Amino acid sequence: MKEFKDFCRLLLKQKTRLGKGLVFLLIVDGAQMVVPWILKFVIDDLSNLPLSHSLPFYALIIIGLGLLVLVFRFFWRVMIIGASRMLERDLRKDFYHRLMSLGARFYHQTDTGDIMARATNDVRAVQQAAGFGVVIAADIVFMGLVALVMMFYISRTLTLYALIVGPFIAGCTYYFGKIIHIKFERSQEGFSLLSGKVREFITGIHIIRNYVQEKEAIDDFDKTNEEYFNRSMDLIKHWAGFRPIIFFLAEIAFSIILFFGGRDVITGKITLGSFVAFFSYLDILIWPMIAIGIVINRVQRGTASLKRLNRILTMEPEIKDRGKEKVEKGIIEFKDLYFSYNGASVLKGINVQFEPNKRTAIVGTTAAGRTTIVNLLWRNYDAEGIYIDGKPIGNFSLENLRKSIGLVPQSTILFSTTIRDNIAFGKPKTSLEEITQVAKKAEIYQEIMEMENGFDTLLGERGMNLSGGQRQRIAIARALILNPPILIFDDALSSVDSHTEKAIMANIGDFLTQRTSILISHRLSAVKDADEILVMDNGEITERGTHKELINNGKLYTRLYEKQKLEELLE
Questions:
Q1: Given a cut of 70, is residue 293 above it in pLDDT?
Q2: Which of 190, 289, 320, 559 has its CA 20 to 30 A from that of 422?
Q3: b/e per residue, 170-205, with b = 16+ CB within 10 A?
Q4: Ramachandran region of residue 369, left (φ > 0), alpha (ψ -120 to 50) or beta?
């Protein structure tokens, strides 16, 4: 019931357009309701000799009504179906906006295929319910009522006979409507699983081939596909069973009227014209009876899909954007910072300050909590104890905070557009001269120029037509062009060779010293020139100092450094 109310609220957003469309629809329905009454006069006139001179007049009226239907049917379709498309557009926009506001935890816990299924199939189901669902519902009410009134006017007795099947139709509609709602929701959930499986296989196709797991992947997909097929067939069987039952009940009503109505014509209780008109109105009435099932199916599907959409649309963003402050100096301070993912402690009492004009590096063991620091600074998660320019991080607007932090992440994501657009992603109106400058600093300019279209080279999905090192260097250029007060490199040089790494660090040395710079890396060669190096282990800062100081300590940093030197010699 709640979903139906939500559905009605959606419709009310397009009330003006829907209202006009319904008026045009009622004009069309009204014109169609007049035709059987005209047939009544025509047949009665034909029964009386000599032939009436009014037949041409009746023919002209029917032609006129046909033209009326032609014109206004166009207008109601434009208005009502157009309104449903507008509703679909707005629903997609609201859904996308909600996705933009949800935090990292939601995306870690929700399958991408499920999100895509909701954004496509579920939105389409709501649109269909709002379009032809509304049309059919209006037909049921208007045509059903008018047909009943006209039938009752012609013969009360025959009308009562025709309504004998009514309770049976209502009972079938109620029973099947509940089942269809449940079955459709299960079918959509199956489609979400299937979409997720397809996305997973496409993303991991290289791994599947490298490990020669094509057969196993196909078998896994076939199981999910078969499950979706079975759920869909379960839905279709109930829908397929519903319609024949309604048609059968309608045929019973026709048979009853044919018997008793024919007898009344023979006995003279009603004229032949009245009987034909009654039969025509009954035929019109059968459509609303059948349409009840169609509209129930459409609305049940629409409300089931809206229920699935609402699970995301009604989610409150985990990260609240209530701050008004703006980052100025870029001084970052952690005071007794603790953080955990789902109860598992990741950061344990971190106390450190990152200052402007100072390059601070963070190194350490795997899963020490280095990347978590980036997630907290970008407010992908919230935690107490983080201050910027002496103020709690929650006091800053999300837009200003994130624009003030230039981040080159561990996993580089590029978009399916040109290299120029990817570099200028955070600053779309950047000149080619600025793009060229940052590309040179990132040591990617020469390779771009060797491509056929240079900066206008189109990239494939996620930039897969570039090497890992090229993607990382484009991501570095993308961060540099923002000229932010805070710059974070999160293992941003892991895919480039040591020679290129040294060149990049030399190019951006002055850039790094002019802002708050945080260099996170597992390769110590990338951070040995930092002003201060923090060594993390198991969520804690265990050492801090310059490269020389830490080497002389003989602790974790020394062991990591010696291990990496040995690996370089072996290579």
A1: no
A2: 320
A3: eebbeebbebbbebbbbbbbbbbbbbbbebbbeeee
A4: left
